[in-house]
Each structure stands twice: as structure tokens, then as C-alpha cells.
Fold this protein.
Amino acid sequence: MRGMGIRRAKATSSRLRNCAGDLKEKYGEKGVEAHIREVAGSRGIGWVVVYTDPSANTPDTLGSVAGMLHTIFVNDHEVGQLAGLPILLALDLWEHAYMVDYVPAEKKNYIDAFFANLNWSVVEKRFDETK
């Protein structure tokens, strides 16, 4: 699972981490992780995908990091993707992703395990590379 953002790492400085104020403004006190959890828990099968839009960080737009992030629930493989935008994080919520370890009623436990093992530094690196 190397390179997929699995495993926690030490906190590092990044463009994403340095813009905590912008993220707090968009996602509230609980932050982006709580927002992703809310989206994941409110829908059925599919994926929660966090994209970044590098073009949103130009002088003629909001210019904030928060304006660059988009959290989308994708129901089907071919419908709902934000074509052309880099993916920062994808959470697979199809049963095949977790049915070996969790029954469908335990989806919340799977989501908890996903975040317990997520390497945010990989997500931040992906974001930093989209400058």
C-alpha cells in the first residue's frame, strides 16, 4: 500500500498545513477530516474523492487553499468525476473494499480504520505538487 497514503507519518510543513485558517473557514472547527467523514457516512456505495483545482489559486479567483479543494461523492465509475482535476484522496466505500474485515453495518468502523491509517503527509505532498 506504499504511496497510496496509508500509514501515518510525522507532521511536516506543507502548503496545505500552512493554510489551516482557510481550511477552518471552509470546513469549520472540526476540519476537513470531519467533512470527509460526514460525506462518507451520508451516502451509500461509491467513493468520496477530494480533488484540488490548481486554477482556483489565481489572482482573479478567491486565491485561497479552501477554494481549491472539492469533496465529491462519486456513485458510479463513469459518472460524477471532476475530469482533469488531480485527486488528493479517495475513500472507497464499495462493500468489496471492507467486507473481508467489516460487515456493511460496520462501515463507520471501516472509515475510522481508514483515517487511523491515512498518511496525511502523502495527501499534502500531492497537494504541494499541484502548484
